[in-house]
Amino acid sequence: MSMPRPDSPRPFASIMNGASLRWPDVPESPVTAFVDATAAELERGSRLCAWFGVAEGAATRLVAVLAADAENTMAIGRSEPTERAYPALTPRHAQAHLFEREVWEQHGLVPEGHPWLKPVRLDHGLGPAVGDYFRVEGHEVHEVAVGPVHAGIIEPGHFRFQCAGEEVLHLEIALGYQHRGVEESLAGGPGRAALVRVETVAGDSTIAHATAYASALESLSGEGAEATMRAQWLRSIALELERLANHAGDLGALAGDIAFLPSSAAFGKIRGDFLNLTAMICGNRFGRGLVRPGGYRPDLDLDSSLATTLLERLRGAMAEAGEAAAWLWNDSSVRARLEGTGTISRETAEEIGMVGPAARACGIVRDVRFDHPAGWHRFAQTPVSVWPGGDVLARARVRWLEVQRSGAFLEEQLVSPPEDELHSPAGARAPDSIAVSLVEGWRGEVCHVALTDDAGLIRRYKIVDPSFHNWTGLALAMRGQAISDFPICNKSFNLSYCGVDL
Amino acid sequence: MAELIRILEHRIRRGCETMAYPAGPAPPLPERHGGALRLEAAKCAEGCGDCVAVCPTEAIARPEGRPATLDLGRCVFCSACVAACPTGAITKTGDHRMAARSRGDMLLGGRGEEEVRLAGELGATLRRLLGRSLRLRQVSAGGCNGCEADTNVLGTIGWDLSRFGIQFVASPRHADGLLITGPVTRNMRAALEETYAAVPDPKIVIAVGACAIAGGPFVGLPQVADGAASTVPVDLFIPGCPPHPLTILDGLLRLVGRVK
Predict the structure, then answer these.
(1) Residues sharing a CB contact under 8 Å with residue A46, sequence separation 6 or more, in sequence order
(2) Which distant-in-sequence residues (6+ apart) come within 8 Å of B99 by Cβ?
(3) CA-CA distance, A104 to A233, in Å (whole number)?
(4) Which among B158, B170, B172 has the least Cβ separation from residue A272?
(5) Which residue of A has its CA nearest to B219?
(6) What is the distance of C-alpha A128 from the center of its chain?
C-alpha cells in the first residue's frame, strides 16, 4: 500500500477480502516502527478493520488489518513479539482506542499514552463496567446512571450521562455484561459448536457473521475450497433479507419512540414478514443453520418454485413498507423531531472509524459490498446508500434507501440462480496461515480474522462486530442533546451489545 | 391533514390484523422449521452414536449399553441429528408446542417419553393472586438478541400479547416475574440476582431459549453459568434457538391456563 522506503522493508502486505496469507509472509516490524507505520497509513486515509494481539510465548505480537476503501485495497502487518508496553496509537488516531484497551485487557500489553485505559468486557474481580468514569464537575452538573438492566426487552449495558439540566455534556458507555468467551472458545478448533457460536455472536446478524466465518475457513482451505457459486448466491440473498428485517424493525422502533404509531405498528409487522422470508428458506427466522463452511446446508435449497413464492411475498412486504415509510417522510412533525437530533459530523465519523449505515448517514461512501467485494458481490453490485447530515433523520433515510436497494437486489437475484452444487467439501486448513474476511452486515462491517497453528487448527480467532466501531459514535451523538433524545439516538444506531462483548 | 386521512383510510382498509389464535387456528410454522423433535430410543441401532457426535450443544447422550436421550432444552434445532440418524429414531413433529415446567420433562427417548411433556398451568394460589394479568420484566443475561427479538415481536399487532393480560414492564418492582434469555454470563449474574430480588413475592421465572435453559451454544464455557436455573428457580422452560414467537406465546398461555 504505502511506498516502501529504500532502507526499510514494507510494513504491510496487501490482502484481499476473503483471502489468506502464510503467517510468516505477513511483514513484521519492531513494535514502535509498526505503530508508526500504522499511524502513517491511517493518516493517509486508511482505517482499522482490526487491531489485536497474538500470544507468542510470554510476549504478544500486534496485528493490524487496514482498509483503504477509496483504493479498494486492504493490508495486513504485524509487530515483532513484544512484552509489557508499547507507544499507544490512540493519541494519534482515536479509532484505535477500544482496540488498544482490548489488547491491554487480553494480553496485558500496555499502550503507553492511551488517554482512557480501562477494561472493555472482563470482570477483573469487581464486576464489569466498574472503575473510573469520566466526570464533569460543576455546580449544576449531575450524573445519570442507567443499566445494565434496561426498561425494554433489550440486552444489558451501562450508560453514564453527565448532564447540566436536560443537556447531556458527556455519555460514557460501559459494556461487558454479555461476555460469553466466544473468541477464546474458537481457539484449538473449529470444534462442533464453533458454527452455532459464530451464528450467535450477534444473533440478529447471523448471516453476516456466519458468512464471514465460512469464507475465512474456506480461504484457509485453499483455492479449490471456495464455496460453490450457488452457495455464494444464496448467502447474498440471505444477507439482504437480514438487512431488510432489521432496517424495517428499526424504522418501526424509531417511529414508536416518537409516538408515531401508524408506521410503528406497520413496520413491526413488516419486520416479521421479512424474517418469515428467511424462515421460508431455512425454517429459522434468523437464518440459523443456513450458512456453513464449504457452502450451504444441503437440504435447504432455494429452488425456482420457492424463489417464485419468496419473490411474491417480498413484493407484498415491500409495498407495505413503502406506505409505512411514506407516512414517516411526509409528516412534518416526524421530520422536525428527527432532523438535527444526534448529529455527528463527517470528520468525527472518519476520526473514530465508524462503519455501516451510521457512517453512510454522515456522507461517507463506505460499504464492504462495494469497496471490498467478495463472494457473490463480485458479480452483483448494489449502490452505496449515502445521506448527508449525520443526524437521526439521515440514519433513518439511509436505512430506507437500503431497504429499497436490498429489495431491488433480491428482485434481480431471485430470478437468476446460478446452476451449481450447494456444498463443496471443505479440505484441510493450511497450517500457519491467516485469513481475513469482511462482510457488510446490516449494522456495517463484520470482520473475522482466523490464524491457524502448525497443524491447521485455529490458533487465534478475532471477531470485530460493526458495533465495536460505532458505540463511540452514539456517545458522541448525545453531546449537547437533551437526555430525552437518547432513545431515538440509540434506536437510530441500534448497536449490538453481545457483538462487542463476544 | 390529507396524510392523516390517508393513514386512517389504510387502517380501515386493513381492519384488525391480530391473529385469531388461540380462539382460531394457530398460524403455521415455517414449513422447514420442523417443530419439536421426537426421539424413539427403541429404534436406535445397537451401538450407534451418530447423533451424539454431530450435536453442537451436546444435547444427545448415549451412555454405554443404554438407549439414547435427547435434551430438547439444550437443542438448537440444527437438524444435524435428524440427518445423521440411520434408523429414523429422531424425527421432526412439526409441532410448535414445546414449553415444559421441568427440565426432566424435556428429556426425550424413553418409552412414553418420546416427546416433550408439555407445561400445565401455575398452581391455584398463584393463579388466584395473579388473576387475569401477568406482568413480566425481561432480563437478557448473555442473550444474542434472537430470543429478545422474538419475545419483543409478541407485542406487535399480529400477536398483540396484551390481549391476554400479559405485559412486559419497565421495573422489576412492577412485575410478577422474570423472563430470562441468555446463558447467564458471569458478568450478568449479580444483576440478575438483584433484579430477581427486586420482584415482589410470590414470583415466577420463565427461561426462554436454549441458552437460558441450559447454556445453548455456550454450554460449558467458563464465562457462562449454563442457564437461568443456575441462579434463580425456574417455573417454565421454552426451548428453541430462538423459539418461534408462537412457541413462546404457547408457553406463556399454558402458564396462565389460557391454553391446555
Answers:
(1) A1, A66, A67, A68, A75
(2) B118, B119, B236, B237, B238, B239, B247, B250, B251, B254, B255
(3) 40
(4) B158
(5) A193
(6) 22
Distance between CA A29 and CA A439 in Å, rounded? 28
Q: Where are the beta strands (DSSP E) in A11-146?
A: 13-15, 19-22, 28-29, 47-56, 59-68, 73-79, 85-87, 110-112, 141-146
Q: Which of A149, A175, A328, A422 to substitute to test the interface with B, most B CBs within 10 Å? A: A149
- At A347 the pLDDT is 96
Overall fold of domain B124-255? Rossmann fold (3.40.50)
Question: Residue B1 pLDDT > 80, yes or no?
Answer: no
pLDDT value of position A132? 84
Contact B166, B256 (CB under 8 A): yes
Report yes or no: A126 at the B interface, CB cutoff 8 Å.
no
Domain ranges, ordered by start, for chain A: 13-112, 182-501
* Cβ neighbours of B7 in A, within 8 Å: 262, 327
Q: What is the distance between the terminal CA atoms of chain B, rounded to a whole angstrom? A: 48
Tens digits of residue pLDDT in B159-180: 999 999 999 999 999 999 999 9
Residue A395: is its pLDDT beyond 70?
Answer: yes
List every span in chain B annotated with CATH 3.30.70.20.
37-95
- Residue of B4, B144, B180 for testing the chain A interface, max A β-carbons within 10 Å: B144
- According to DSSP, residue A96 is labeled G
Sheet strands (E) in A115-208 = 141-146, 158-164, 167-174
Q: How far is A86 from chain B (nearest CA, A)?
A: 29
Return the CATH class of domain B37-95: alpha beta
CATH class of the domain comprising A182-501: mainly alpha
The pLDDT-based confidence of A7 (bands split at 50, 70, 90) is low
Residue A299: pLDDT band (50, 70, 90) is confident
pLDDT in tens, B64-98: 888 899 999 999 999 999 999 999 999 999 999 99
Nearest to A458 by CA among A288, A106, A216, A108: A216
What pTM value is reported for the model?
0.96
* Ramachandran quadrant class, A79 (left: phi over 0; alpha: psi -120 to 50; beta: rest): beta
**Residue A404, C-beta contacts closer than 8 angstroms, at least 6 positions apart:** none
Judged by a CB distance cut-off of 8 A, whether residue A269 touches chain B is: yes
Return the C-alpha cell found at A486: 437518547
Answer whether B143 touches A (CB < 8 Å): yes
- Residues 18-77 on B with a CB inside 8 Å of A are 30-34, 53-57, 76-77
Query: Minimal Cα distance from A275: which residue of B?
Result: B150
